[in-house]
Amino acid sequence: GIMGGTFNPIHNGHTGIARCAYEQSDIDEILFMPSGTPAYKDNSPIVSATDRCNIVKLAIKPFDYMSLSTIETDRPGNTYTADTLAQIYDSYKKIYFIIGADSLLYIQDWYRPEYICSHCHLLCANRDNNSASVLIDQRHFLADKYGAVIDFIDVPELPYSSTDIRKKVAMGLSVKEDVGEEVEEYIKSRKLYV
Question: Residue 155 pLDDT more than 80?
Answer without folding.
Answer: yes
